[in-house]
Amino acid sequence: MTRVTFPSSSPRRIRQSNAVATLNALHRFGPLSRAELARHMGVNRSSAGNIVLELVEAGLVREVPENEAANSAAQPRAGRPGILVELVPDAVFFVGIEIGVEHITCVEIDLAGKIVRSSTRCFEGRNSGPEEAVRTAIDQAFSEIGKDDLTRCQGLGITVPGQMDRNGFIHVAPILGWRNLDLPALTRTFLPAEVPVSAENDANAFGIGTTYSQHEAANGVTFFMVIETGVGGGIVIDGKLFRGGNGLAGEVGHLKTRNSEYRNLEQAFGRDRILSSYRQFDPDADLDAFLSDVRDRVPEAVQFAEEWSSLLAFAVVQISRLIDPNRIVLGGSVAELYPLVAARVDAHIRDLQAATFPIPEIIFDENAAYGSAFGAACMMHQRFVSLDNQLLNRDAVSDPGNSAA
Predict the structure, then answer these.
(1) Which of 2, 49, 91, 103 has the smallest set of CB atoms within 10 Å of its CB?
(2) Which of 233, 295, 298 is CA-nearest to residue 270?
(3) Do residues 21 and 41 lie in contact, with contact meaning Cβ atoms separated by under 8 Å?
(4) Which PROSITE patterns does the UniProt entry name for this protein (predicted)?
């Protein structure tokens, strides 16, 4: 049970807190009765009814018969259907963008946190400046959104593979070649409407999106590793992103390897290394061809996969010794190799890991195609259903269009 009222709070703040708690409960549990809402929030049923009324007037929630509720999580009841309360999914929406080295991915999610639109297009990030990349990404994200719908956009999150502070200022994005860039400010210059903007490292966003949509993943310590051209990492502890002292926690790609041929893990088992090495055997190979050859047990492909397995195992052992995670979640195109070599990775880990250290569960996220972009959108959804959203105070709650500041 989450209690959301505080004796020292003003009436306005109490109402805002209760509205936030209501939206969060409906997002997490689906349609609920007023009595169920009251129990989740720790308030009486009358108070829950007043909160619901305000949110209905704001167009953010609606009342529906139990047998008509969308994705109802409630147990069927005997007798006449009760009245449940649920989110209005299309009341508002949030946009997430991932600018990668070889692609731009855009995702739109609704108030229920569901993906309603997505797109991925090839893009040469290393040959494009930040202005071109951001402008192209914004055009892609909003190409199918009409002008009349822009007022429903309540946030845009954008991610890149780079080192940035909590305000989205990029110190360096070495693979893209960007330095000293205020990414949120640049993004705002290309937006077709004034909406809240936030920027995040791609691996952190991947972790945020996974834990936000899969509540069981929020328990304990989870390390998220994105393996693309670069190798990034994010740490989530009991549902909270751990950034470290300077926002650089989880940068596993910069760990040194045992092989002096490569400066770090990113160079040793990222996408570029795999393809440049395998193309010595098959000049026309792309990643899909390599993965197919591994499945077909082509000797040269198996040899490269074995080396990759040992390097991933090395990374897992170092991560385990530093933060002792319960699980490691893999995402990114190169991570599709893991299910094919999971047994070899496990064998290498057991050779490297001291018997007194537990081995974390390793999970390949099959739904990670939109991972970082989805996470970026989730960041803005999370902001909307928090006390940072001024829409939910007494003066603004009746007019969602006033909150896009």
Answers:
(1) 2
(2) 233
(3) yes
(4) ROK (PS01125)
Half-sphere exposure of 152 (CA within 13 A, CB side): 18
In 187-303, the DSSP E strands lie at 197-201, 221-227, 231-237, 240-242
How many angstroms separate the CA atoms of 161 and 176, rounded?
A: 8
- What distance in Å separates the CA atoms of residue 76 and residue 80, rounded to the nearest whole number? 10
Rounded Cα distance between 96 and 146, Å, is 17
CB of 345 closer than 8 Å to CB of 313: yes
Q: How far apart are CA 198 and CA 379, in angstroms?
A: 8
Distance CA 368, CA 331 (A): 6
Distance of alpha carbon 394 from alpha carbon 13, whole angstroms: 8
Tell me the per-residue pLDDT of 117-167, one tens digit each, with 9 for 90 and over.
999 999 998 888 999 999 999 999 999 898 889 999 999 999 999 999 989
Q: How far is the C-alpha of 177 from the C-alpha of 264, rounded, in Å?
A: 18
**Residue 335 near residue 225 (C-beta atoms within 8 A):** yes
Task: Judge contact between 25 and 4, C-beta under 8 A.
Answer: no
Q: Are 52 and 14 in contact (CB under 8 A)?
A: no
Closest Cα to residue 308, out of 357, 354, 248, 262?
262
